Amino acid sequence: MPLDHTTQTPAATSQTDEARRQIEICNACRYCEGYCSVFPAITRQRAFADGDITQLANLCHNCRGCYYACQYTEPHEFAINLPKALAEARADSWERFAWPGFLAGPFHRSGVAIAVALIVGLAALFWAAQALKPAGGEGFYAVMSHTIMVSIFTPAFLLPLLAIFVGLRAYWREVGGQPVSLAHLKAAFADAVKLKNLSGGAAEGCNFEKGDRFTNVRRWHHQAVMYGFLLCFASTGSATLMHYLLDMPAPYGLFSLPKLLGIPGGLLLTLGGLGMAVLKTRGEKDLGAPALWGGEMAFVLLLSFTGASGLALYAATGTAAVSVLLPLHLGAVLTFFLLAPYSKMVHGFYRLAALVRDAQQKS
Ligand code: SF4
Ligand code: SF4
Predict the structure, then answer these.
(1) Is 150 helix (H, G, I), strand (E, B) or coil?
(2) What pTM was computed for the model?
(3) Residues near 143 by Cβ (< 8 Å), separated by ≥ 6?
(4) What is the per-residue pLDDT across 86-134, written as a single tens digit (0 to 9) for each?
(5) For a pocket test of ligand 1, which of 5, 8, 23, 26 has the largest count of ligand atoms closer than 8 A to its C-beta?
(6) Candidate of 18, 30, 31, 35 to mutate for ligand 1, largest count of ligand atoms within 8 Å of Cβ
(7) What is the Cα–Cα distance from 344 to 44, expressed in whole angstroms?
(8) Which atom of ligand 1 is nearest to the CA of 69?
(9) What is the CA(90)–ligand 1 centre distance, in A?
(10) I need a surface site. Which of 187, 262, 266, 318 has the fewest CB within 10 A?
């Protein structure tokens, strides 16, 4: 692709073509070289195949720093808006890689309505399933049988993981991924654990909600959500091990491993998710993918509601409120699992894959 696209008036034919047009201008300009890992990756190439655009789009985390630094934004004829172009190419890639594909679009466009309908519908089913409660059982198992919970959540956990794996395999093929070594994984996880790229080029944060002012607030909220989610996951995992390996079924006390992991995890997830939702209302919609705004908002609210309903359920232990809160919490968790391959949740998997591919390209 010739670099003299810089002289053309923008005429996007697709998300990939528009991102390619802007990336070629950036590769000629190179003013934003230190901003994030996208620009060094751009400067390593002269031409950009579709797979290169997909890789660059998934490396970008929409910090918007390059937009506020750019001298070629509208009304300049180049009309550069790289955060938006990459956000739209990224969303397009997630839809193309989703499996089954027809499930991807609806959540992105009508996320809040679908999430609410699923939570309410699934909670109603769980509420009805209480009629099958066992004669004995303690804690939650006095309200709903362990067998019912396991037979619903095992496939609801494994099938979305399979769908995500299928999507990642398609991503890896499109971006020309090579066999992965330990060094590539180490480099990618080191970046992901610190959310290094959200700290911006000068470690002062990003410009998501503050225009041309840098702030780390988005990074902190994102860290709260990520670590909250991982702690909740570890809490469930430890409870499963205690149940099956140590013959120690729930309920667990305040100083047990599931609670010591789950309570801080729930708090971080609730507050981090709420913080992300507030930031989304403050950021300019047109610097992301406007069509996805509703789906992204639904996702962070779903995360926050899942954490909050889990904490409320724990606080209500031993009271009649458990029969209402348990179905609600299970409905939220099941909604989260079922939507994971088609919601913003997939960005974590594709971002990690993009970091691994970036480590390969740098080595
Ligand atoms: S975003 Fe603008 S200033 Fe930055 S590299 Fe691209 S064209 Fe240059
Ligand atoms: S929006 Fe941020 S992460 Fe994306 S290309 Fe621009 S500076 Fe890099």
Answers:
(1) helix
(2) 0.86
(3) 130, 133, 137, 322, 323, 326
(4) 999 999 999 999 988 888 777 777 777 888 888 889 888 888 877 776 6
(5) 26
(6) 31
(7) 29
(8) 3
(9) 19
(10) 318
